[in-house]
Protein: Riboflavin biosynthesis protein
Amino acid sequence: MAEIFNVDESFDRNRFDGACCAFGVFDGVHKGHQALLSCAIEDAAKRGSASFVLTFDTDPDEMFRPNELKKLMTNGDRIQALAASGVDFVAVLPFTREFASLPPEQFLAWTFGEHAPASIHVGCGFRFGARAKGTDETLAAWGSRNMCDVTAHELLCLEGAPVSATRIRGLLSEGAVEEAARLLGKPWKVRGTVVSGRGEGAQMGIRTANLRIPDNLRSIGDGVYAAYVIVDGKRYKAAVNMGVAATFADRTTSNCEAHLLDFDGDIYGHEIELEFIAWLRPMRAFDDVDELIAAIMSNIEWVREHL
Structure:
């Protein structure tokens, strides 16, 4: 695991000297991001220097379009994933309104000072600085003045289209978790704390862990899914209802319910992680409780047989 540094006034920018940088937000740390990170790592190996990621403590879109953003992972998880990517260190910039207002040249001057790295790797279309006026061409011009090689890489294409966080969010919103996993390089995950539920599940003999997933992390569409739930490091097969169940829409605040197979522990108040594997069916209202129970049991049986 790479060391993580906050880039502030106390940060030793000498660490940048001679190093190779991958610069971006990297929400999801998907296969396209992994390819870009590999470019910086391979460049550093050729130069005999260190590789690092330069990113932000907060996704800039959280500031500029908070009501529209659907993140693939939390900022903390994103930074931890970058630290596990194979780079030598992660440099985290504080994305404040003051920092966001810096024009591109001042942005670069504050970030690097007199310590430009040997190289910077970004994706084509990369933007930075106030009003996103800085482009990869802006960065390349700065690099030429500071003996820093800047490369803007074409986006990795898989299954006929570029891999991007936007594309993955679109797939998840449609319930296409298997396709999203292929682009992420892993199943999509989300974490939440178990809260009190309605109690109907227990009355029907089908206990569920109820969670309230923050809206900006609900990239996935409503529906019933086959998943794994990780509790205290152990994985359990689960049937997961994402969204407010239509049958109980007037009686709940939770937006995620997971029935863990072969589990009878008390996890109220615990944080658990859900790993989505397959879409099973859409959400719908049922005419009566017996029809609902039959549908749930069918979902559970599919999960038991196929996961």
Notes: The chain has a mean pLDDT of 92.
